[in-house]
Design a protein that fits this description.
This protein is an alpha/beta fold and about 240 residues long. The chain has a domain at about 105-200: Rossmann fold. Helices cover about 35% and strands about 15% of the residues. The chain contains 9 helices and 6 strands. A 6-stranded parallel sheet has the order 3-2-1-4-5-6, with helices on both faces. Helix 2 links the parallel strand 2 (about 40-45) and strand 3. The termini are far apart.
């Protein structure tokens, strides 16, 4: 393992509702393909661009922590979950603490303060998320805070549009390769291919609600947590 705080750091945010094996494969293959010293998973407290997670933030965090417990080179940042769960001491405090959505710009600004101006940071995204990048809050500023690495399916060229959008222009100007990531703290867009796994959190939640097994779709530690806490079940009979 590398020295703490050294090398290129991958940042992988998401609701992880629940964390499943495709999440872990993306993180693992990103570390290998991009030469990352470490990958930090960041469970969102209150995601901004999607419906509220079905599972409580504390449970989502616990599942991620358990899944990564025996994986060297991977870590968890619990800050957003803890901020989302701050108990309100007043009405005003409740608005400030628990109603603010998790924006990626805030996450990256916090990570940049934590790791300094020079450490290369790489935000890991799926191709679908990157295609919607222009809808993200203050999206152009993200390139000044981190590189963007976009996971694609093998044999699929990353295409973000017809070549005429603002994101297309940024992609054309910033496209790089894995070796570029260590050369600067931020600013590149690097596609990388990963194993295609047709697994989604929503499908896993549907299976659990129907009383069906999700073994081998989620890590054993996550399955144990789901079972012991009866998460995502429509009843306690399954």
């Amino acid at each position: 393992m590398s020295e703490p705080g050294a090398g290129v750091l991958g940042l992988f945010g998401g609701t992880f509702d629940p964390l499943h094996v495709a999440h872990l494969r993306l993180a693992l293959e990103a570390r290998e393909a991009l030469g990352l010293a470490e990958v930090c998973l960041i469970p969102a407290g209150k995601p901004a661009l999607r419906e509220a997670p079905q599972c409580a933030a504390a449970d989502r965090l616990a599942m991620v922590e358990r899944a990564l417990a025996d994986m060297p080179g991977f870590s968890v940042d619990a800050t957003e979950v803890r901020q989302a769960g701050i108990p309100p001491t007043s009405v005003a405090a409740g608005v400030a603490a628990s109603a603010t959505p998790s924006y990626t710009i805030d996450t990256l600004e916090r990570q940049r303060r934590l790791h300094g101006a020079q450490r290369p940071l790489v935000l890991l995204l799926g191709a679908d998320a990157f295609a919607r990048f222009e809808a993200w809050h203050r999206w152009r500023e993200l390139f000044g805070l981190a590189h963007i690495a976009v996971a694609t399916r093998p044999g699929h060229e990353l295409r973000v549009g017809a070549g005429e959008t603002a994101l297309d222009a940024e992609f054309a100007a910033r496209r790089g390769v894995a070796a570029d990531l260590a050369a600067a703290p931020a600013g590149r867009i690097v596609p990388f291919a990963i194993t295609a796994l047709e697994i989604s959190a929503s499908a896993i939640r549907r299976r659990l609600a129907a009383g069906l097994s999700v073994r081998y779709l989620v890590p054993e530690a996550v399955l144990d947590y789901i079972d012991s806490h009866q998460l995502y079940r429509t009843s306690h009979g399954h």
